[in-house]
Amino acid sequence: MSQVLTTPVVTNVTIIGDPVPGSFLRGSYFYDGTSPEENSIYRWYVDDVSFLPSPSLDYEITHEHARAKIRFSVTPVSTDGSMGIETYSLPLEVFDGYQNITEEEDRNSFMSQRGHYSVYGSDPKDRVFVGNAVAFSLTNGSSQSVNVRGRADFAGVPPAEIQQYLRNNPATRMFSTERDFGALVPVLGSTKRLLLWGNNMLNVPPTLDLNNIKYVYSNRAAVAFIYDNPPRGKNTIGAFGSPTLGGVVPVAIQSPLLFDPPMAIYATEYAFAVLTHEGRVYAWGNPTTGGTIPGNIADQLMYMKVERIVCTASAFCAIGPERFGDPEIKLVVTWGDANGGGNILAPEMETIIDQDGVDQVVANRNAFCAITKRRKKAVSWGYAPYGGTMGDSTKQFAARGNIMLCVGSAWAFCMVNSSGQSESWGAAGSGGGSLTDGKDEEDVDAAQLFEESGAKESIAALFNDMKIDDWYQQRMRSVPHKCECDPNTLPGRNLSEVVTPNGVISIHSNDSSFFLVAKEPDGRTKDLFAWGQATGGGAIPPNTRQVLMASLITGVYCTNGAYGVISTQGTTPGAVSAFGGGPAQQDAGVIPTALEDHLRRDVSSLYTMKTLPPFAPTASRSVSAFAARREDGNYVVWGGGGWVTDELFVPT
Question: What's the superkingdom here (predicted)?
Answer without folding.
Answer: Bacteria
